[in-house]
């Protein structure tokens, strides 16, 4: 996962978390993210105080159906 900053950039803090493959800086939803933005492990998806991107969540759960089953 990689963070998307608020409108003011890094000083605004994390606005949203996106899912990325490996260390890429383009999210599964297609959004380009700041390569210097914070990253977290995928297991933290849904557990952050900040929101997670719904589109990325849909892609991510489709690619990892065993995780989707756990959430049902
Ligand atoms: Zn996203």
Q: What this model shows, in words?
A:
The chain is of the alpha+beta class and 72 residues long. It is built from two helices and three strands. A three-stranded mixed β-sheet has the order 1-2-3. The protein binds zinc ion. The site of zinc ion has 7 residues, from helix 1.
Summarize the structure.
The protein is of the alpha+beta class and 72 residues long. It has two helices and three strands; from the N terminus they run βββαα.
Tags for this model:
alpha+beta; globular; binds zinc ion; single chain; 3-stranded mixed β-sheet; 72 residues; 2 helices
Secondary-structure map with pairings?
Layout: E1 2-6, E2 9-18, E3 51-52, H1 54-63, H2 65-70
Parallel strand pairs: 2-3
Antiparallel strand pairs: 1-2
The chain binds zinc ion.
Zinc ion binds at residues 18, 27, 29, 31, 53, 55-56.
């Amino acid at each position: 996962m990689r963070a998307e900053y608020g409108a003011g950039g890094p000083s605004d803090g994390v606005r949203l978390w996106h899912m990325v493959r490996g260390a890429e800086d383009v999210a599964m939803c297609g959004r380009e993210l700041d390569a210097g933005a914070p990253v977290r492990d995928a297991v933290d998806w849904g557990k952050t105080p900040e929101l997670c991107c719904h589109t990325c969540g849909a892609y991510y759960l489709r690619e990892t159906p065993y995780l989707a089953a756990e959430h049902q």
